[in-house]
Specification:
Layout: H1 16-25, E1 29-32, H2 35-45, H3 53-67, H4 75-79, E2 88-91, H5 95-105, H6 110-113, H7 119-136, H8 139-148, H9 150-155
Parallel strand pairs: 1-2
EC number: 2.8.2.-
Main location: Golgi
Family: Belongs to the sulfotransferase 2 family.
């Protein structure tokens, strides 16, 4: 197939036959993260641009889903989980267990390839940050964010997300 010798990385650049051949020949792994945690990370990485988390959220919601940056876009719009049959979905916070399983399935040595993960500490930190930042938002902003990410919240088990109703 021609796709084996091209530098293109976006599926949309290929025809349907090539897409089906590529997707059928790879093990597809999707890494997902609570959308509210993604927003917190994006805000913290761009500190200084917006004076508060609330204004950051307002600016992001104002741009709309079509004009949103990749950091803001719902995962469902980026990864198309309804169209691509992923072999594995790995949730943020469970990397150690999930990646160990994937490496064993691939016949690789788990101990030599996996870095040290601090999932428990990271999850605790995000729980605390989520609580603090969520309290900064108005009821209307919370409702808009929940609506903005409704498909992610439906597609993935983010049951403890602050955006879940």
């Amino acid at each position: 197939y021609q796709w084996r010798h091209t530098k293109e990385t976006q599926l949309s650049k290929f025809n349907q036959t090539e897409i089906e051949a590529m997707l059928g020949s790879y093990t597809k792994v999707l890494f997902v993260r609570d959308p509210f945690h993604r927003l917190i990370t994006t805000f913290l990485q761009g500190m200084g641009i917006n004076p508060s988390f609330s204004s950051f959220v307002e600016d992001g919601l104002g741009s709309g889903i079509r004009n949103a940056s990749v950091d803001w876009k719902p995962l469902v719009s980026l990864c198309l989980p309804c169209l691509v049959q992923y072999d594995y979905v790995v949730m943020f916070g469970f990397h150690r267990q999930e990646l160990s399983h994937l490496l064993r399935r691939a016949g690789l040595s788990v101990d030599s390839l996996l870095p040290k993960f601090t999932d428990t500490q990271v999850l605790w930190t995000y729980r605390w940050l989520s609580e603090q930042m969520f309290s900064e938002l108005s009821a209307q902003q919370k409702k808009k964010l929940s609506h903005f990410y409704r498909w992610d919240l439906s597609a993935f088990p983010f049951s403890s997300s602050y955006l879940s109703d």
